[in-house]
């Protein structure tokens, strides 16, 4: 019987960090796309302007060439001044399409002729044609479109590549910002988790954001109401114990006196039957009150304490009442046993019920093993094997296993209720691990919660 913490999912910090990183990346990519489109338009305008400027600068040379040329002259090729990459080539033609002048890279581009003045585009070239001298000279400049595309790609890459460095930096900045901002919220969550095991002290709300502060106030108000309800229940339990035990004890005393005064007769036998019933009623009322305490709360102490002394006291009390202390094989770790924040009174009820149950239902000729070690408490007894389908039912009130011994069927139910309320693990195993018969009850202690 144990309560587990819910599995971790997508925390608020992780969600905010992820979405902010995705948003920053998406915005950067969108900005880079828009910038690339604008840049492409601007690059086209700049290179178109360069085509036009080259054509206009070549026109005076073309006009001089036409004046000095004799009919039938060969095309003049302008030799490059030095090694360079020629991105813009030009060719000068007359109105008949004959080439008069061309740059050194014009042959490689194969600039088409017969183009009307203005800009034109082909699959591989962007051209500009300028006419002069009343349409007798045509200057056509050309640029390879792959040059423009390469320039655009380099410019866009210059915008996108910083994203590779920006994303980790942005993630780190977002993570640090969220971590610092969420620190009070995480502390608030940890404080609530600590109070989940019985600590009902108010949760500190200092430093919480405005969205969470009302939650802290509501949680504190709820815990205050819960504290009041538990105090009222504990008060009712104590008063009920007094009110029930006193009249039962008085009736039992009167019955025992009546037995002593009556001679042996049917009336004295009936008086002894009444005394036996009153003893059973006394034990049943005690068990019911223990069950009410186990299910009512108040099972954790404010500070952890060793449980070894409590267990020794319980064993001594059982020995005085039943004279069966020699039937117990007790093992307690040194230094007073393990530390636990389980309330000593709750542990005493737990241990007493488990030990009494083992003594009552175990084999009379076999000892009952009681072991208190670091992190666990075990009680084992030999006897008939309890079928697996019955083990789960044994922790329910008034459920009994395969035994002829008298009992109320509340011992294991009380132990399970205490473990459930204190957040401890409670397991039953039959047969005893490594044995052929018997029953073992194991309680595993939780680590004491830090006090806020």
Automatic annotation (TrEMBL):
One of its GO terms (cellular component) is plasma membrane. Its EC number is 2.7.13.3. Pfam families: HAMP, HATPase_c, HisKA. Gene3D superfamilies: 1.10.287.130, 6.10.340.10, Histidine kinase-like ATPase, C-terminal domain, Sensor protein qsec. Keywords: ATP-binding, Kinase, Membrane, Nucleotide-binding, Phosphoprotein, Transferase, Transmembrane, Transmembrane helix, Two-component regulatory system. Its main location: membrane. Residues 239-449 form the Histidine kinase domain. It catalyses: ATP + protein L-histidine = ADP + protein N-phospho-L-histidine. It is an enzyme of class 2 (transferase). Residues 179-231 form the HAMP domain. It is a multi-pass membrane protein. It comes from the Bacteria. Signal peptide: none annotated. SMART domains: HAMP (SM00304), HATPase_c (SM00387), HisKA (SM00388). It is found in: Membrane. The chain crosses the membrane at residues 16-39, 155-178. GO terms for molecular function: ATP binding; phosphorelay sensor kinase activity. PANTHER family: SENSOR HISTIDINE KINASE YKOH (PTHR45436), SENSOR PROTEIN QSEC (PTHR45436:SF14). This is histidine kinase.
């Amino acid at each position: 019987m144990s309560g587990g913490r819910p599995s971790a999912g997508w925390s608020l910090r992780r969600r905010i960090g992820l979405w902010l990183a995705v948003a920053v990346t998406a915005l950067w990519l969108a900005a880079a796309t828009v910038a690339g489109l604008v840049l492409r338009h601007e690059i086209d305008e700049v290179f178109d302007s360069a085509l036009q400027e080259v054509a206009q600068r070549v026109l005076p040379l073309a006009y001089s060439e036409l004046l000095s040329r004799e009919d039938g002259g060969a095309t003049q090729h302008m030799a490059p001044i030095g090694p360079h990459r020629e991105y813009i080539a030009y060719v000068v033609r007359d109105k008949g399409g004959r080439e008069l002048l061309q740059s050194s890279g014009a042959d490689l581009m194969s600039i088409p002729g017969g183009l009307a003045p203005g800009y034109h585009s082909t699959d591989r070239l962007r051209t500009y044609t300028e006419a002069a001298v009343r349409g007798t000279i045509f200057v056509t400049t050309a640029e390879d479109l792959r040059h423009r595309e390469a320039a655009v790609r380099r410019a866009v890459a210059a915008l996108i590549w910083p994203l590779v460095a920006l994303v980790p930096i942005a993630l780190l900045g977002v993570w640090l910002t969220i971590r610092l901002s969420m620190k009070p919220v995480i502390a608030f969550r940890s404080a609530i988790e600590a109070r989940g095991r019985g600590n009902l002290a108010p949760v500190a709300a200092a430093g919480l954001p405005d969205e969470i502060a009302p939650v802290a106030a509501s949680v504190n108000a709820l815990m205050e109401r819960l504290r009041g309800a538990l105090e009222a229940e504990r008060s009712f339990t104590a008063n009920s114990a007094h009110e029930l035990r006193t009249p039962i004890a008085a009736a039992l005393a009167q019955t025992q006196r009546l037995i002593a005064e009556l001679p042996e007769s049917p009336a004295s036998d009936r008086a002894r039957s009444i005394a036996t019933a009153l003893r059973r009623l006394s034990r049943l009322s005690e068990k019911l009150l223990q069950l009410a305490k186990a299910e009512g709360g108040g099972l954790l102490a404010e500070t952890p304490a060793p449980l070894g002394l409590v267990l020794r006291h319980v064993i001594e009390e059982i020995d005085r009442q039943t004279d069966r202390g020699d039937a117990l094989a007790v093992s307690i770790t040194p230094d007073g046993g393990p530390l636990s924040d389980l309330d000593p009174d709750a542990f005493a009820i737990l241990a007493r019920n488990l030990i009494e149950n083992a003594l009552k239902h175990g084999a009379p000729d076999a000892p009952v093993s009681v072991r208190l070690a670091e992190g666990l408490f075990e009680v084992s007894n030999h006897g008939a094997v309890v079928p697996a389908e019955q083990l789960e039912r044994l922790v329910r009130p008034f459920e009994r296993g395969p035994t002829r011994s008298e009992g109320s069927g509340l011992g294991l139910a009380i132990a399970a209720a205490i473990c459930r309320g204190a957040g401890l693990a409670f397991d039953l195993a039959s047969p005893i691990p490594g044995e052929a018969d018997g029953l073992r009850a194991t309680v595993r202690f939780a680590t004491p919660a830090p006090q806020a």
